[in-house]
Amino acid sequence: MPGTFSLPFAPRHVLVSGQEHVAISDAIRAARPDLDIRNRAPADVTGEDLDWAECYVGFRPPRRADAMGQVRWVHSTGAGVDAWLNDPPLDASVLLTRSAESFGPMIAEWTVARVFAIQQQLPSLAAAQQQREWAPRDIAQVAGTRALLLGTGDIGRAIATSLRALGCTVTGVSRSGTSDHAAFHAVHTTESLPSLVADADWIICSVPDTPSTRGLISRDVLSRCRGAALLNAGRGAVIEESALPEALERGWLRAAALDVFVREPLPTDSPLWNDPRVIVSPHISGLTTTAGAVAGFIECADALARGEMPKWVVDRQRGY
Ligand code: GLV
């Protein structure tokens, strides 16, 4: 469902905003000198810019998504497009495409780093070291543990491959409940999530924020966990974040590693900052690169120039 946008459409005026907007616009200019490019920091985008632009390239709307001037095509430099589909959604007549960049390998490294940090108790060893305290403890191996992955797309598959190589048993959970990827020992539908979490040592979430994923890891689901560590590199809204302190306190979760939050930056008064069982990172698990952002945009622009619908059109019904 690409919305109500229709071909043919080959934009000439392109407005690039967001982080790295200068480098991205320079690279687009070099690759497509026929396009007229403006670049702006998000806070500097004016109504006149949006009335001039036919295409907007950026991670988030510079203002309300329903006030995009004459823009007929938005290219998201990120993989997750929730900023364009929620409160308010981008007008259905605007084409929405997303980054073609593969974030799986980087998010898999983020995941493996946290799995080992938690299993090897690195935060508490570092705290003991600060106190010059010799603090022996038992360390269990990652090999032989059970991981439950929420999301079996490109990112979930990359995580599954890494964890399987470490000797984990990897179970996937997805909308369809199927995946033919060899790294998964089994895949179930999301309806099975509440019954699966009790057996998981790791619950790893890499799904986007869509109407069907929002709040999926609810307090009820958390209450069924038996000491899992919860990792989130998807979107904060997938987890009932306000229930996490209780989940940690009651031992439903033994630890959490969170890269994404309901509100970002994570508010300074959030109890998650101070909890020694929680590893916070500032939404860095899968970073857009300039080269990746440019390649994705050019691929879509070239398809439009040929009169074709780009491969990376967002399915607005699914939300990705
Ligand atoms: C990052 O979170 C992205 O969606 O690319």
Describe this structure in words.
The chain is of the alpha/beta class and 320 residues long. The protein has two domains: 13-101 and 288-305, 3-Layer(aba) Sandwich (Rossmann fold), CATH 3.40.50.720; 104-280, 3-Layer(aba) Sandwich (Rossmann fold), CATH 3.40.50.720. 28% of the residues lie in helices and 17% in strands. It is built from ten helices and twelve strands. The strands form two sheets. A seven-stranded parallel β-sheet has the order 8-7-6-9-10-11-12. The chain has a five-stranded parallel β-sheet with strand order 2-1-3-4-5. The longest helix has 16 residues, at 104-119. The termini are close together. The model has no long low-confidence stretch (mean pLDDT 96).
Rough shape?
Answer: elongated
Class from helix and strand fractions? alpha/beta
State the CATH class of the largest domain. Alpha Beta
Enumerate the spans where pLDDT stays under 50 for 5 or more consecutive residues. none
Arithmetic mean of pLDDT: 96
Q: Summarize the main sheet.
A: 7 strands, parallel
Compute the number of strand runs. Answer: 12
Distance between the termini: 11 Å
Q: Which CATH-level-2 architecture of the largest domain?
A: 3-Layer(aba) Sandwich
- CATH fold label of the largest domain: Rossmann fold
> What is the gyration radius calculated from CA atoms?
21 Å
Order of helical and strand elements? EHEHEEHEHHEHEEHEHEHEEH
Task: Give the strand line-up of the largest sheet.
Answer: 8-7-6-9-10-11-12
Bound small-molecule species: glyoxylic acid
CATH superfamily of the largest domain: NAD(P)-binding Rossmann-like Domain
* Helicity, as a percent range: 25-40%
Count of the domains: 2
DSSP strand content? 15-25%
